Task: inverse folding
């Protein structure tokens, strides 16, 4: 009896632990909207292979080009002093204005009801950038140059100026509009998370480079918790804006993490530490795949009810879900229930989602109005407040042909085969195969599966692209990407710790390493695509292109901002990484000595 009691408590503890794990996984904190299901289906149907390849290859090039343009102007050495480095301050001013303006633009893109104009972006960006760089320049002139973590010093003035400008320009508007006030508050929270990351990661890097050997390897475990906290912060802030969650989370937290750590963890004292970083990423990917399998299991069980040889039996679960959406929309319309944009129930995924009670039934699906929205193929899709993707009218969608002869009374595969043998054109209605509760459950699970797979393919894409295009730390060497290959030929390469002092032979040896690493990551991406293709029935490369193409404005602003910012931070003139901490220790020592005197 005692053994049985221990086993019961152990199982209960494991269930609670699993529930806690699920609660903090951002993949489970949302689902596709019905409009996004339609948009994805239409996009994948009309997407050519040529366009797919071009989208995946060209997406990272704008930030690469801007990064190289930023380094085209030669800088004076730090030893020349703060006043002789006027080119540095001109560059820092331009970069800071650009970053601040881009952050404001992101808020306008995700909150279109602000009616933000180009003059607002330019004015706030110039004002915030000018004041913040003036503060950094004054601190460098009065204290020490290079100023340790100078870009972090620029953050508080920028935040303050942007907040004041928002209140002055849009304050009267959001004071009388509660919904707009809520949306602006959400975007301010996302911005706060972005700023917080710029402070948290330097502290982590300081701790990492302070350790050696096994202690450094153990400290790697902290990194996933930083990412997890950042992803949950943004995901929970966006609440019911599910259609922009994956893109916003990945291209903020994941991209920032990859760029910052790639540029900063170049002093890893052992191969074990770097291997630990890669092992943690592999573990996170494996857990994500388990998430997909868990949710997709319910979809597969429902699809198994479709009789063998049925006309829709060869369709993907996405196509089946859209058929069921059409059935529910027609059912609601004939029941004279007012139509409107559907909303999914918010909240975390529950493993007990095997049925729908009356309340969930009411919240799970409200039919959408397709008559007042338009969308043409290839047009950018911009986010709205609660419904991100406009719903295509039936005339613009790829048709899902319905059967012409329906036999609603046929309830078993055996009966279906008998009828099909006599009448090959006969079909069994989905209403007869699935109950309404099963149809709603199928739609919900489909929306969840696609939400999770979007996270996975975006993470895998960034892990392939960023190490090759930018840089990646590995053992005691720096694996240089395309940016490094060009930067190595420019005069400013001497002011980047990862390039300073490298001979041509050493540099090209690291190029060979990065190509090898990139090949491994690319193989990992291909494996992911193959596995998801087998599980889902369609190539998730197309889902990746769907996000990169239809949300290109949002993706590019984040990629460019983070890339340019990280390249600026890693410059020795602004106290790069470990050098900054050494300089900061020197400043503290000097001030202490002066105080004693």
Result:
């Amino acid at each position: 009896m005692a053994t049985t009691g221990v086993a019961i408590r152990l199982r209960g503890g494991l269930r609670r632990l699993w529930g806690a794990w699920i609660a903090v996984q951002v993949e489970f904190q949302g689902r596709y909207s019905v409009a996004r299901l339609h948009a994805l289906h239409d996009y994948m149907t009309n997407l050519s292979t040529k366009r797919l390849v071009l989208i995946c290859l060209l997406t990272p090039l704008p930030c690469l080009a801007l990064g190289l343009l930023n380094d085209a102007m030669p800088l004076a050495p730090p030893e020349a002093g703060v006043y002789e480095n006027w080119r540095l301050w001109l560059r820092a001013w331009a970069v800071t204005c650009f970053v601040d303006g881009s952050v404001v633009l992101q808020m306008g893109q995700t909150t279109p009801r602000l009616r933000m104009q180009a003059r607002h972006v330019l004015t706030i960006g110039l004002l915030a950038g000018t004041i913040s760089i003036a503060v950094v320049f004054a601190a460098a002139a009065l204290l020490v140059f290079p100023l340790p973590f100078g870009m972090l010093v620029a953050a508080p003035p920028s935040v303050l100026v942007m907040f004041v400008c928002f209140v002055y320009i849009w304050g009267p508007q959001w004071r009388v509009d509660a919904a707009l006030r809520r949306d602006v508050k959400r975007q301010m929270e996302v911005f706060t998370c972005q700023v917080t990351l710029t402070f948290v990661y330097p502290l982590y890097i300081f701790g990492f480079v302070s350790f050696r050997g096994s202690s450094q390897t153990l400290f790697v475990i902290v990194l996933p918790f930083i990412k997890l906290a950042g992803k949950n912060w943004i995901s929970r802030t966006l609440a019911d804006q599910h259609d922009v969650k994956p893109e916003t989370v990945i291209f903020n937290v994941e991209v920032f993490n990859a760029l910052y750590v790639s540029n900063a963890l170049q002093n890893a004292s052992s191969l074990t530490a770097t291997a630990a970083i890669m092992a943690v990423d592999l573990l996170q990917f494996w857990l994500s795949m388990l998430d997909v399998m868990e949710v997709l299991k319910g979809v597969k069980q429902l699809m198994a009810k479709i009789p063998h040889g049925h006309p829709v039996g060869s369709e993907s679960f996405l196509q089946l879900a859209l058929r069921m959406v059409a059935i529910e929309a027609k059912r609601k319309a004939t029941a004279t229930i007012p139509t409107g944009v559907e909303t999914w129930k918010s909240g975390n995924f529950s493993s007990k989602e095997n049925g729908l009670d009356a309340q969930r039934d009411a919240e799970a699906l409200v039919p959408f109005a397709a008559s007042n929205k338009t969308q043409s193929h290839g047009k950018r899709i911009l986010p709205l407040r609660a419904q991100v993707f406009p719903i295509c009218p039936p005339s613009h969608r790829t048709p899902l042909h319905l059967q012409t002869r329906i036999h609603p009374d046929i309830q078993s595969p055996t009966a279906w085969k008998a009828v099909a043998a006599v009448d090959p054109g006969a079909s069994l209605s989905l209403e007869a195969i699935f109950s309404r509760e099963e149809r709603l459950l199928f739609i919900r699970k489909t929306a969840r599966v696609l939400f999770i797979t979007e996270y996975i393919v975006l993470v895998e894409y960034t892990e392939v692209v960023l190490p090759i295009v930018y840089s990646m730390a590995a053992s005691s060497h720096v694996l240089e990407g395309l940016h490094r290959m060009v930067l190595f030929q420019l005069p400013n390469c001497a002011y980047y710790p990862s390039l300073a002092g490298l001979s041509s032979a050493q540099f090209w040896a690291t190029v060979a390493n990065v190509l090898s690493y990139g090949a491994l990551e690319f193989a990992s991406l291909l494996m992911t695509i193959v596995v998801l293709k087998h599980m889902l029935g369609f190539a998730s490369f197309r889902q990746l292109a769907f996000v990169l193409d239809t949300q290109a404005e949002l993706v590019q602003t984040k990629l460019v901002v983070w890339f340019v910012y990280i390249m600026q931070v890693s410059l020795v003139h602004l106290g790069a990484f470990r050098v900054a901490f050494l300089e900061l220790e020197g400043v503290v020592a000097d001030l202490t000595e002066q105080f004693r005197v």
